[in-house]
Predict the structure.
Amino acid sequence: MSAFPSFGQQNAGMGQSDRVAAVQALVALSRSSDFLNRQDAGVAFARLADSEIAATRLRELILDPEDTSVTRTTLEALTRRGDEIGLAIIATALTSADDNHADWVASGVADGLAMSESARRQTLGICQQLEDRRSRATQRGVLALRAMLADAGPIH
């Protein structure tokens, strides 16, 4: 049994035109000067991360230059997806992260795993799959993400 809820079924009732409209509305919200709006957009975008527009905005929200709470909230939501899509977005953003954001990435991912050892192991397994199938840039981010998870040690 998965340590994560089934994500694919959560969006099953949403039609393609509804998804496009939601992504378009969230783009505007994600560009708000209010950090709470950007946090909300990051969480909502995580549910729509299979859209390239959403994935692009998620990478930008992870590296939010104004408020690291946006970074952390977005990371938690992406980590909770428990799938390759969310982790690939995180890994790609990590390749552009400065040291400060990299620290927040580690915290956000740990929070997203809810301190569960089984979720950490599952995430490491997904990272291994990503490392085998993604571009070299994403592979560097995956290696950094795996190192963060390994440094976290056993979670109780």
Observations:
- Residues 14-151 form one domain.
- The chain is about 70% helix and 0% strand.
- The longest helix spans residues 117-133.
